[in-house]
Write a structure and sequence with these properties.
It contains two helices and 24 strands. It is mainly β. β7 and β8 form a beta hairpin. The longest helix has 15 residues, at about 1-15.
């Protein structure tokens, strides 16, 4: 059970430690909750779609919490239907360990079915039910939920839901100072060599794909870790394909600088005319890592990826480069990390930037994680999905780096350069590989909260898509 608690704790840090520098009383703890849920949505035409939800919330009081989350299709016939967003929940004790629980999720996304199902992509979800508190084993509950895509979508579904929460604590540096184990963030490129007998949903042979994404590992000890990986198609003819994987693995040192790395993951994925059935994916991987320095590493390996009830399957050699941080010397509330909740609007940048609704701007909602190796520069991983402009199912994942500079009191400026994979929603991104450049100005409202306005440009490397970008961000975390 201790190992399970540490796994959930590391996932909490991985997903939502950007708010961790709030000063606390000596006996107070940083509290998080890992939350999972499953429900089956009713779609038009008597179709159903099983959805698995995962999120991490930080407690804001005795019975309230808020954080980030994602939902992905894992059963039915809509593999690749994925949304990301923000969520919150609350509980009221009723009798003994029984509690009344409810919450909400606001996000964006879509997938197979395009804007006919998700409209412009905005997803709103509410749930309520009863849960039983099992102490260190967490809370298990059941109830009902309502999911709607109110911005032109056809999904308006009321259904039963089962949910599970595991609370865990981190002491701040003002208390006993529980220490964070080492973590790593890396950029990974995978060349997915699909089996020769794999066809697209349309019946044509599926070509090999180049996937670009990020991998975050949170180490439980010197060897074992949990990981979160997301990647999208940036090469081939399956733009719009995206996958989200959650797993566990181990690192086995061979020499002072070389180590073996192996992991097993499950998750959801699809899109881009790729047949993943209901969306459930299984991945097993192995490879080698080489420590370039105390904090930088490079890696290479192979993995086997397979849809559990779809045609997709194949080997994928991979390369990655990343950075390690944390460890015994660094407390959780001293990590130089930041979380940005962002809304971005795309404005038409070329005549053929969209295959439909070319006269409409596209609004996107997303989450951005930043790591500051030095106070004036950061590495970033970002994921966004459309919620406005009849571009439902458009999603984008980006990695890059930026520069940060305080200019006067609470004011600061930043510039960043990004590259990644995008697709869906009728945006003409070609193979899916895109680049983006942003510049912005921010105001530090408090030590841990800031507001930012950004402007930039995004362009497809080998497609007609191009757009000017205006963004507004709510920033959590102190990097000064």
């Amino acid at each position: 059970m201790k190992r399970v608690s540490r796994i959930m704790s590391s996932l909490g840090v991985l997903c939502f430690f950007g708010t961790g520098s709030i000063a606390q009383a000596e006996d107070e703890r940083m509290r998080f909750e890992t939350k999972m849920a499953y429900e089956s949505l009713s779609l038009p035409g008597s179709e159903s779609m099983g959805m698995l939800g995962f999120g991490v919330e930080r407690t804001l009081g005795q019975n309230f919490s808020a954080g980030v989350g994602t939902w992905t299709a894992v059963s039915g016939d809509r593999g690749g239907f994925i949304t990301i967003g923000v969520q919150g929940s609350g509980r009221i004790p009723i009798a003994g360990p029984i509690e009344l629980e409810g919450g909400a999720f606001v996000g964006a996304g879509g997938g197979r079915g395009g804007y006919e199902l998700s409209g412009s992509g905005l997803m709103v979800r509410a749930y309520a039910g009863l849960s039983d508190n099992f102490g260190e084993l967490g809370r298990l509950g059941a109830g009902v939920s309502y999911v709607t895509f109110p911005n032109g979508g056809t999904i308006h579904s009321f259904q039963p839901v089962v949910f599970y929460s595991l609370p865990f604590d981190f002491k701040s540096s003002l208390a006993e100072g529980m220490l964070l184990e080492e973590s790593s963030l890396s950029v990974v490129s995978r060349f997915l060599m699909v089996d020769s007998d794999v066809n697209k949903l349309s019946g044509a042979p599926l070509d090999d794909m180049t996937l670009l994404g990020i991998v975050w590992r949170a180490y439980l000890d010197e060897n074992w870790y949990v990981k979160f990986e997301t990647a999208g198609a940036a090469g081939g003819n399956s733009s719009g394909y995206m996958q989200v994987l959650l797993g566990t693995g181990f690192r086995l040192p061979i020499t002072e600088r070389i180590s073996f790395d192996g992991s097993v993951s499950v998750g959801g994925g699809g899109g881009g005319d790729v047949d993943t059935g209901g969306g459930m994916l299984f991945d097993v991987s192995g490879g080698m890592q080489y420590a370039l320095s105390d904090h930088l590493f490079a890696g290479a390996g192979f993995s086997w990826l397979q849809a559990t009830d779809g045609e997709l399957k194949g080997f994928s050699p991979s390369i990655e480069i990343g950075t390690r941080f944390g460890g015994a010397e660094q407390k959780i509330d001293e990590l130089p990390v930041r979380l940005r909740l962002v809304s971005q609007r795309y404005f038409k940048g070329s005549d053929n930037w969209r295959s439909h609704h070319a006269d409409k701007d596209v609004d996107n909602l997303g989450v951005q994680f930043d790591y500051f190796p030095v106070p004036w520069a950061y590495l970033t991983g970002q994921g966004l999905a459309a919620y406005g402009g009849d571009a439902g199912a458009y999603m984008i994942g980006l990695v890059g780096a930026g520069l940060h500079q305080q200019i006067s009191g609470p004011l600061f400026v930043e510039v960043e350069g990004l590259a990644g994979a995008a697709g869906g929603g009728g945006l003409t991104v070609g193979s899916g590989f895109v680049w983006q450049a942003n510049a912005g100005i921010g105001y530090q409202v408090s030590k841990d909260v800031a507001l930012m306005v950004t402007g930039g440009k995004i362009d497809a490397v080998n497609g007609d898509f191009a757009a000017d970008v205006l963004g507004l961000s709510l920033v959590f975390g102190d990097n000064r």
